[in-house]
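Please, structure for the following, as tokens.
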Amino acid sequence: MVPVTCYVNLTSFLRSSTFRITLLYVALFTASVLVLFSFIYWSSVRYMADQSDAAIRSEIHTLSERYENRGLPGLRHLISDRIDRQQPTGTSIYLLTDPLGRVIVGNINRWPKVPVQDGWLNFNLETRDLDKPRLHPARTRQFQLAGGFRLLVGQDIQELNAARLRIITALGWGVALTLVLGLAGGFFISRRMLTRIDIINDTSQRIMAGDLNRRVPVGSRGDEFDQLSNNLNRMLDQIQELLDGIRQVSDNIAHDLKTPLSRLRQRLESLRESSALESDQARALEQAINEADRLLGLFNALLRIARIESESISTDVQPLALSRLATDVVELYEPLAEEKHQKLKLLGGTQPVVHADRDMLFQALANVLDNAVKYTPVGGIIEVNISNHRGQPVLSVCDSGPGIAEADQDKVFQRFYRGDASRSSAGNGLGLSLVSAVTRHHGAQVCLAGNDPGLCVKLIFPQTQN
């Protein structure tokens, strides 16, 4: 049968429905993870900010109680003690000013000139690192004491912002890993599914190429693909049974009628030779004999196609030069082409050799060339070309006739099928059917192509194994 190569390239994979479903799943999953991580980030950062604000409020409450109990000296002593204990790397901020705004005690030298939002002040604080002074974000809260004194308490929130950045980085890597792992897993799953679909497609192409005994492989998992494979195999079995039945009917009819038809022709021959007939009777008898010959030729063609398709016919396969075969066939049909003033040319500089049965291939090429001569108009051109395409020998017959409509190109290889343009001419619709059977028997392909105007019939043979 015709070898069919089926593979999935990157373009077909990216355009597959399985890959699109995988992308949709990965997008939804990534969006879900992103929403979840965003909630985790918001909750964590909010919790840390609330803890910082609560610590500032608690410190203000402690300091205000000290002021109420021990007055300004006690408060000043407590703030100084807190500042001394956190040196040199403390994060707490303290500032106590008098009613005129002068600094009494604190670890910053002036009141921040920033807008107040619900008692909170956010500003940038220059660190005390003499080697590398930097600005750190700070968050403070002001408190009005009795007597016009003002208290500012807060924290350096550089570590809080760094923690936020670390959380964002971790969540970002988490989303990226989720996306990468989702795509990798989706690619793996999609590839496995496409591989099983490709097996079904490959089997279908081989069946369409003529290997009707091919069946879809069935695994042992019993999943949906195995059920689909079983259903397809049962459907193919029924189709093959129907096709075999139809072929068997036509073959049986041809076989059963061939013998009585042969006897009838012999009797007509005997009658023509033994009787003195008038001219009209002799002409009618001759027409009857010709009709019997046509029917015998039809039945012989049917039986020959049946034997080739069932591979019950004995073949003499040997190395065969296509150029010599084409030369013999062209010489046979040159007289017919000359009668219609047609130009019959043999082209090709290559000398490919194929392994084939010469008689069968001669008959197939003769059928193709016979159709070309028959349907090419007077003065037309017929070219027989021998070439080599990607290591495969190609034998083509191109004419300048009416051609075959694209809708009929797949039908002309069926038995008894004749297009509208050929119904008025002699023939039985089995010529190309025999060509198709012969090419399939040799593992070759026959295809049709337009010649603008006309038709090209190409016989493509498999690569010769050295």
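Confidence is low (pLDDT under 50) at residues 1-8. The CA atoms of residues 223 and 253 lie 45 Å apart.
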